[in-house]
Amino acid sequence: PGLAQQITENLQGALGNREFEVLSIDAVGPKVGSELKRQGVTSVAATLGLVLLYVAFRFDVAFAPGAIIALFHDVSVTIGIFTLLQLEFNLPMIGALLTIVGYSLNDTIVIYDRIRENQDRYRREETIKLINVSINETLSRTLATSGTTLMAIVAFLVLGGPIIQNFAFAMFLGIIFGTYSTIYVASPMILVMEDMKPY
């Protein structure tokens, strides 16, 4: 508070009679920063663990690693780009990462559900053909959902102002890479897991 007051007084002196309004003041000390980082990592790790259990229970153990790797990919790429661009990592960013995990998982579950349906429908088909058919059947839905969500996110990026910009940028990256990983990472991992089965 003392430093914030000093900065406000310096601005007032520099601007003279012109009026300005301080919209928000955030102070994060080293202890709070490390606590924020720890809680963020813990929440993302707990989410990934619960996802692993859910996918293994709902579908098959062979499906779970693909979902986890895809989610890890989405979160890692988003954090990597933020680090590369030296953008602020704050509480809304953690919220964005958890939203990305949920969004990407939803896309993955839709394709996994279709793969499971097609396994029952085409029992004699090879797994690679089942996955290809399932991706093709859900592709228009995946692209339409991602496209409409991206339109809203772009509006936030352009019109949202500096307070929401990092959140919107993280969501923008997450949706693009989440759509990619659902199709090109999560589904092909089923083939890898099938090849590793000892039969």
From the structure above, extract its key features.
199 residues, elongated, 6 helices
Describe the SSE topology:
Elements: H1 2-15, H2 30-58, H3 64-84, H4 91-121, H5 127-159, H6 162-196
Helix pairs in contact: 2-3, 2-4, 3-4, 3-6, 4-5, 4-6, 5-6
Give the overall shape, derived from the CA principal axes.
elongated
User: What is the tally of beta strands?
Assistant: 0
| Share of helical residues | over 70%
Beta-strand proportion:
under 5%
Task: Report a brief summary of the structure.
This protein is mostly helical and 199 residues long.
Give an overview in words.
It is a single chain. 82% of the residues lie in helices and 0% in strands. It is an all-alpha fold and 199 residues long. It has a single domain (29-196), classed as Multidrug efflux transporter AcrB transmembrane fold (Up-down Bundle). Helix 2 (30-58) runs parallel beside helix 4 (91-121), helix 3 (64-84) packs antiparallel against helix 4 (91-121) and helix 4 runs parallel beside helix 6. The mean pLDDT is 83.
